[in-house]
Amino acid sequence: MRAHQRPSLADATRGRILFGGDHNPEQWPEETWHEDVRLMKEAAVNSVTLGVFSWAKLEPRPGAREFGWLDRLMDLMHDHGVGVVLATPTSSPSPWMGRLHPETLPRDAEGRTEWWGSRQHFSHSSAVYRRYAAAITDDLAARYAGHPALTMWHINNEYCTYDYGDEAAAAFRRWLQDRYQTLDALNHAWGTAFWGQGYDRWSEILPPRHAHYMKNPTQVLDFRRFTSDMLLECFVAERDIVRRHTPHIPVTSNFMPLWAGQDAWRWAREEDVVSVDLYPDPRDPLGAQYGALVQDMTRSQAAGGPWMLMEQAAGAVNWRGVNHPRPRGLNRLWSLQAVARGADAVCYFQWRQSRQGAEKFHSAMVGHAGERGRTFQEVRQLGAELAVIGPEVAGTRITADVAVLHDWNSWWAGEHDGRLSQEVDYPEVLRAWHRALWEAHLTTDFAHPEQDLSAYRLVVAPQPYLLTDAAIDNLLAHVRDGGTLVCGFLAGVADEDDRVRPGGMDARLRELFGIRTLHEWWPLDAGESAECDGFRGTLWSEELEAEDDAVVEAGYKGGELDGLPAVLRRGTAWYLSTLPEPDALRALLTGVADRAGLRPVLEGLPDGVEAVRRGALLFLLNHRPDAVTVEVPGRHRDLLTGDLVTGSVLLERHGAVVLQP
Amino acid sequence: MRAHQRPSLADATRGRILFGGDHNPEQWPEETWHEDVRLMKEAAVNSVTLGVFSWAKLEPRPGAREFGWLDRLMDLMHDHGVGVVLATPTSSPSPWMGRLHPETLPRDAEGRTEWWGSRQHFSHSSAVYRRYAAAITDDLAARYAGHPALTMWHINNEYCTYDYGDEAAAAFRRWLQDRYQTLDALNHAWGTAFWGQGYDRWSEILPPRHAHYMKNPTQVLDFRRFTSDMLLECFVAERDIVRRHTPHIPVTSNFMPLWAGQDAWRWAREEDVVSVDLYPDPRDPLGAQYGALVQDMTRSQAAGGPWMLMEQAAGAVNWRGVNHPRPRGLNRLWSLQAVARGADAVCYFQWRQSRQGAEKFHSAMVGHAGERGRTFQEVRQLGAELAVIGPEVAGTRITADVAVLHDWNSWWAGEHDGRLSQEVDYPEVLRAWHRALWEAHLTTDFAHPEQDLSAYRLVVAPQPYLLTDAAIDNLLAHVRDGGTLVCGFLAGVADEDDRVRPGGMDARLRELFGIRTLHEWWPLDAGESAECDGFRGTLWSEELEAEDDAVVEAGYKGGELDGLPAVLRRGTAWYLSTLPEPDALRALLTGVADRAGLRPVLEGLPDGVEAVRRGALLFLLNHRPDAVTVEVPGRHRDLLTGDLVTGSVLLERHGAVVLQP
Amino acid sequence: MRAHQRPSLADATRGRILFGGDHNPEQWPEETWHEDVRLMKEAAVNSVTLGVFSWAKLEPRPGAREFGWLDRLMDLMHDHGVGVVLATPTSSPSPWMGRLHPETLPRDAEGRTEWWGSRQHFSHSSAVYRRYAAAITDDLAARYAGHPALTMWHINNEYCTYDYGDEAAAAFRRWLQDRYQTLDALNHAWGTAFWGQGYDRWSEILPPRHAHYMKNPTQVLDFRRFTSDMLLECFVAERDIVRRHTPHIPVTSNFMPLWAGQDAWRWAREEDVVSVDLYPDPRDPLGAQYGALVQDMTRSQAAGGPWMLMEQAAGAVNWRGVNHPRPRGLNRLWSLQAVARGADAVCYFQWRQSRQGAEKFHSAMVGHAGERGRTFQEVRQLGAELAVIGPEVAGTRITADVAVLHDWNSWWAGEHDGRLSQEVDYPEVLRAWHRALWEAHLTTDFAHPEQDLSAYRLVVAPQPYLLTDAAIDNLLAHVRDGGTLVCGFLAGVADEDDRVRPGGMDARLRELFGIRTLHEWWPLDAGESAECDGFRGTLWSEELEAEDDAVVEAGYKGGELDGLPAVLRRGTAWYLSTLPEPDALRALLTGVADRAGLRPVLEGLPDGVEAVRRGALLFLLNHRPDAVTVEVPGRHRDLLTGDLVTGSVLLERHGAVVLQP
């Protein structure tokens, strides 16, 4: 099949925003199904995801097939105008599989088996698992290929397993043979001369299992790459099966947000629809910023195109230490934020709250309180509004002048056992940089370090610890071509094999930023800060010697690094050897953006108010704890109320307006 | 044997308070034995427990029997007027059992074997273990059935093991078959439709072993029920053996206090004597209240009758992070508290402090300092006093108008992986409510939610998360019959299978309390509190909509729940959607009790002074850090000094008086 | 071979200080080797350690031998005047060993295998491992016995493994049979009568594996002794092999500092050279004191003779939570401190920083920044200075009048599961006492409790929890002979089998200190302190009753222990029942030393300035955060500058001077 023939999210949305969620009616008596469709209609639900975790229901014993209940459900949904995202049930094998084939159960690094009785107890490398998964997928796809309710395929669910067992070890060796061809190449890549780890036969290689002391970092890195790739193989295998049956139906699998287990850049290329699950903590004062980050990242993985919010919670989740519900208005606010940032589908886990099982306290669109509950009342209002917004935004795009570099390889490699600071957490650093841009009201994309950056006047690289030669060339070209680059500490330290580059930082990058010698890294203790000119740095500092023609934009003040560069610049290439505190990083990036000719979405926005333009619409979202009036030059129409907005608009607490020109 | 023929604690006490403790003379040369009996006489010790952990001594190799040393000990005790509580040694199998029969060793959820070299390394489900345990029990009982020193049987010790291994898995399946009869019933009860856990054959069912993510809550709940029942089977098997030999001798096994592993309501029914081990931390400012709770609970399990304090520490224990001794007077104070609250036996672990082994720093009646040590000197004084008190109290009862509901099923079910708040700890909530009543000087019983509550004018239910239909009927009847009910949050949420009841709370209970809709649970963060009218709530809050005729006794103030009911009342049924801070809960329950016509044991008692009436005696116990004078209307005789008490009495720090009318 | 024929460190130093470090050129292309020797010459490096972790390089498959690369390296070093400390590579078996002989892999107490892929994955008890280790050692020694570069043998590296597996269990039984001869003796020593652990056959005995509850303390103690002895057997086996080939070459293995795994008193007797790895945290305000402690201890293990600093870090390590580099001057300061306290070798891990592997962020003499880096520049300066100092100090000794008692048995036994306080940490207590003496400017040795103490006027015993009868006799004799003894709490509690001595403290010691009765131990909570006359005690307190003729030097004030002795003295025997806060302990020991006629190294030294006399030299080391002037009576020559010093000398921050008379 040729790429241009591939279906996309637009094939499912058809000019609407999808609204709905995971639906597990097999947990309920059939009379409840009819209650469900009545309430779906009330809430303008137009999409449900069926069949996630239904393997035991579909194949209660090896080879059996029980599709009747699903037939009835598909028909019911179709009869009531609700499209179905149909899931392959392969995320949780039936109990019989573990009993008959214990080798399908994963083992962790400590050698512990992961038993059934929960979910996702499958080894990605198990031939038996894959064979059974292919069979049920094939039969499912065959059966429903022509069903009119079918709008999308959802493969598996939140791929996130690993396996350190023997079958995975064999698969790991095959993967390594593909990657390195020879043992010499592997020994070189892994630096096995250190600690006497030289391999003489492929059969000697293991996953990085429990060990006496620190593990080989490149072995661990490759095992993470391998794990992501094995899971992707599982996805592709099922995708290809359903695609054979329904080439016109788009396929997705839901990512978890900012999740270490999958290299989503690689995955997204294999998907027709990029979807994500997003669960900000309602109590997190930066919850909205975190949501924006995930949304920006997901949109970027979807090549800027619309994406699908596959799961969010209408109220509380149940996996935090303390799980808070969404207060009045917040569900609407965060849902509209997703639409503003490119979502063409706003869905939930789940439609109806389970009365049993491990997630019975995880909220749903219809909670335990039922239709009288506040949560459902707000869901109903949101459904009505999305029905209004849908035709105006579906399929439209967002323009960003700023890109944030992100690569799983940097994350993975930076987390090795023997790093200099356990306080440095890659996702936290990423959040800090994105937050600064978000608070500066600059709309941002995420980008892979090797991708074309010509669309961006400003590129920021919070922590590109590992950079391939191609990525370095790419960054150099960006600056050479007039772009601005702002780079955080621990940049270009390692090559693709996590081999430290001579000098502790790639020589071309040192030259780019004007660093003569990187003498020593000076990580900071938890809670410690480093005084700099005009701000305080956190997490990290460095003993840098600048080239004569580089500009020390800010130096360290006092201490061992007194006078050395905290912020160094050569032309439009900036290097930050520390992480400025939030306000300082925001001010710094605002200034850099300003030099680069970038302006915020709207001038004079109060803190905590988010503005995003999507297509012709302007979304204004109030994340402050109070109501606020926002100046909006010109005349707009409030899309949801029809009111005319001239000069300013009042946003209530948790309020949001969508303005049309 | 018919119930009315059963022996009881009275058969052992015969009008005295038993005083003594665990005795392990096999650790000592026989010359020490004679020193022991001399000191026992000095301290008025009249009871020792022999044979706990003596299996290797009695059966050093499979089938061997070495009773000679025990014969000599039994005779020695009898010769010196000390009765013997004889233990079956089955708590710690001999090393040979693990070596010859490794399947008798338990496995934990992670798959780790629990090896010998400590204690309690037996699988409750092991047929081999049970066979050996029965054989040694039978021979022991046969040998000492007629010995005049024998006063009681002590089966095993602190039953607390679990097993996730294969033999336990088989036993679990049998237990489930008994409970559910059919797989359909089990699948329904466990809600296996969630996450595709449907079982097709009994052989697919496992204990809730280590898994990828959250476990099935009902599977976990049933495994806890099963574990308690398996241990109870072990107990009953041994009990029946000794009972065959000595139908006239009472049988017990010692509970651990507020311990999750055994459903003590079920267990107590099988015992002739209910006994408990009690180790409050001498540094815990609420240690006395904790002791009172355990004593009230144990007495209630003994159907209000006298119970046995099987173990306490004369000084420090050795299993806390830091282990503090009992300061001067505290051992006497806490021992008299136990008597006040129904104990007819005050015993210790142990008589003589071990010089070796894991507990050599656990205190004893005779410590390392020997008879000159302060601890023994105080033990001697206590022994003399108990000899005076004994004839006045032995066999008498305590009257309580208040009952605190408690059920292991609520505790177990509420602890599932996917709960809304890890901050909510069932025993802590129970302690908070009992503390409020204790500080209000109200004597309380504990009660099972399904038991007859007609004796109580006030019933409080701190956290009845799981309630059967029968329990709900019982509570409704209590209120209907004029009783007062005060219920804490998370009440009636789940049915017997931990299935959430529609509406998030049983509809009959909602009606009882006047709750129209329970919109959302709002758990509070650690350290967070919720402002209410007149107090602050902790741990939890709720978004409740009251019925029109319900009375909002206190509302939330400010925040998302402003004005919603924190304390709601309909008639004599009260519902607290938060946990008020200690003083507020005390004030609230004092007020409710007052409305219900209940008065404190003594009016005008200072804080920290505990008053309990047992039989005709009034115990006054000073838990304050200083001396205090207590008003006592009327004339009393101080039982221990013979002094006349008119109007008031001075209680020293750690002081206690026992007053007769 | 007779002892007086044994080679020593002097055979390697030949009047110099060894300067250099671990060198792993097999990680680098051969062109780097030539760069290395050029830089070594610049830095006056005269010694490198080769071959640690090179097993896979030397024996890439079973029985293979590849010595060519090492031949070239040995020659290269010799050609450039660099001596070689040649290591046996047995610390990390090649991957093939684990694959072919999985029984060589250790198992931890939880039953987890320690896989290869890190380092030190060998079971000390494995016959297969030992056979392969002997074979490679033999061939290595045969090949390089006559090589002119060879100056010393380094056996293995940081012996620190353990094994709870089956082969180790068998070895443990053999070790126990040697120790106890009969099972009766073992049962007595272990106190197996407690908790029914009596052994009937040797085959029933296991390592102290994962168990239900606390383990038998003496079993654990013996397992620690066994583990240290098994590792020592491994060392001795390799030592004997190399000694056969090169009787004239000294042999060492590097200790880790204050490390629980090896009884270094026993080990040191088997070594020709005592060496240690020392990594104080540059951020630790007590880092210098910690260094001094390790240096004093190592020197004492070397019977006062010179010792070898085998490893230190020129900058950061990479195994702490946050790893800080050494600021300018600190590397020199701490290196000179080692020389002052007896080191005749100042070496590093490692010469050149690795670009790959788990320790690529661990610093080296030549860091990632290369020769331009500050670190290498400072290394070069240090090398030049050591070349000046070497001839003046090599082989000279240090005199101390104070000894600090230390014994691994006390450490091990005191750590048992059932101790009274988890807050009491043996090494921390040792550090506190040594710190007090260090701050008092008293030079101290460490001593084993059973060794001849006649050289010391003052002996302090921070925490001699376990004392053999011989050790007690030794302490009594020390006092009887006019010596002063100051003893910390938990003294003489246990005998060699960790059996509590009657009275909770040995009766002879109680008499020595004037303790009539030790009623109760009163451990203090974390952060709690006990008011005493003139100071506050921490960690611990005791309810002691003094003999009439003992002097209460300080009593507890207030609380339960009011007036009881905190510091008790009878003659020159002092007992501290608490740990005074640092200033108080320093003042107390200063006073005691003064009474004993001891004076500081130099009068009037400012805090934070360390003075040590070695041979004829006076080292002055500034550990303060600022510069300071030190009064030095008389006339000296500054050895490094040649300046005359009269009356006083200025020490810069991190400054050090070496003065000659």
From TrEMBL, chains A, B, C:
Specify the protein name: Beta-galactosidase
Q: Where is this region: Disordered?
A: 1-26
The chain's coiled-coil residues are none
| Domain of life per record | Bacteria
Residue ranges annotated for the Glycoside hydrolase family 42 N-terminal domain, each copy included: 22-387
Q: Which InterPro entries match?
A: Beta_galactosidase_C, Beta_galactosidase_Trimer, Class_I_gatase-like, GH, Glyco_hydro_42, Glyco_hydro_42_N, Glyco_hydro_b
Beta-galactosidase C-terminal domain mapped to chain residues: 608-660
Identify the residues that the record assigns to the Beta-galactosidase trimerisation domain, covering every copy. 400-598
**Which keywords does this chain's UniProt record carry?**
Glycosidase, Hydrolase
Return the EC number: 3.2.1.23
Per the record, the similarity remark reads:
Belongs to the glycosyl hydrolase 42 family.
Its taxonomic path starts at: Bacteria, Bacillati, Actinomycetota, Actinomycetes, Kitasatosporales
Which reactions does this protein catalyse? Hydrolysis of terminal non-reducing beta-D-galactose residues in beta-D-galactosides
Q: Name one Pfam family in it.
A: Glyco_hydro_42
